[in-house]
Amino acid sequence: MLNYEHLSFWEKRTYTEEIDTLIIGAGIVGMTCAFHEKQRHPQRKIVVLERGYLPTGASTKNAGFACFGSPSELQDDFQHMPETQVWETLSMRYEGLQKLFEIVPKHFMSYSACGSWDLTKEPMEGGFIHYLNRQIERITGISEVYSEDSAKIQSCNFHGFNFAYKNRSEGSIDTGQLMEALFRKCVEMGVHFLFGTEVTKLSFESTEKSVTTSHGILKPHQIALCTNAFAQQLLPLDVRPARAQVLVTSPINELPIDGTFHFDAGYYYFRNVGKRVLFGGGRNQALEEESTISMEISSRLQNHLESLLRANILPNQVFEVEYRWAGTLGLGPAKEPIVRQLAPGVVAGVRMGGMGIAIGALVGEKLSKLLV
Ligand SMILES: Cc1cc2nc3c(=O)[nH]c(=O)nc-3n(C[C@H](O)[C@H](O)[C@H](O)COP(=O)(O)OP(=O)(O)OC[C@H]3O[C@@H](n4cnc5c(N)ncnc54)[C@H](O)[C@@H]3O)c2cc1C
Do residues 18 and 160 both lie within one domain? Predict the structure, then answer.
């Protein structure tokens, strides 16, 4: 392996010397932080380090829901968080999506304003939906975001659900296109990327900062830690990893499903991707087993997802499961992310939970503002 000390004069000058801002992690947070850093300070040398040959956390592995909250998820949040925090988080999600679309226009990520449906067995109280609509209008300016639309269950031929609540302001994106567009944007602006470079140690106690990597030591002026679920491997931040598993079917002729769907307080989610169905979640079935950084899929959860899919979402359809994968969420005792200065010129933006598409761009911007 080629260590930094063996690099040429040109390579050192371009990539490893005199780094103004070193960003660790090339997920949505790392890339949007790089974007804002470069936009605010075009002269700065900004280098993003990524341990994988692709981003290897959640940003290229997620379900592609551009969402800010379903009624059953909000109902669940009310039981675990003070109400002000629920609305703050929702507001971050909504604002974050607008920020994301400012950086990458919607058509570059095949955004579809398809709406989302929250599927339940029991009805939600009309008063509760009304209350959510009033609060959300206050935050987003959009009126009547939620409405009951239980006819969707029949038109999609779902089994095992009795009620559906539509959110008319949510949509879906192509996750691969989003990340590729972000990467290209950063490169065009002059941000450098070093893939296949793992950070093993950070030290910033003295005025000189030092970042030990798999290829040698770098001495940047500033550091942004954007490693989400893996943050604890470098610093004692309150983030724990949680595996999230997904599958995608073969194309299905006459697929009756069009849109994004959630059930069970957001623990399960599915959508169409063209004529295919992407289905994921179910972590609550095996919380301990899924508290892992392993990106291998488990037969237990994959079988569980597949049987739910065949019984409730695509009954009487003929299809194969053609793709299966897992990504890693960063969770913690609170739903909101950690966005913090750790020392002068050292910041962290981690713990995006299951909402990093929504809040990632906002966190990236906040990080660049926290840097000097
Ligand atoms: C299956 C799944 C479905 C999801 N669905 C949705 C959804 O529909 N909507 C939504 O809003 N959110 C969703 N999420 C959550 C969302 O994807 C994440 O919150 C978001 O991608 C987190 O972005 P990030 O940049 O913070 O972290 P990541 O994308 O995890 O990026 C962190 C990067 O840091 C790198 N890294 C880690 N340690 C080191 C190190 N020591 N040295 C160098 N590099 C390192 C990793 O390889 C990784 O690429 C989903 C997540 C998963 C897994």
Answer: no
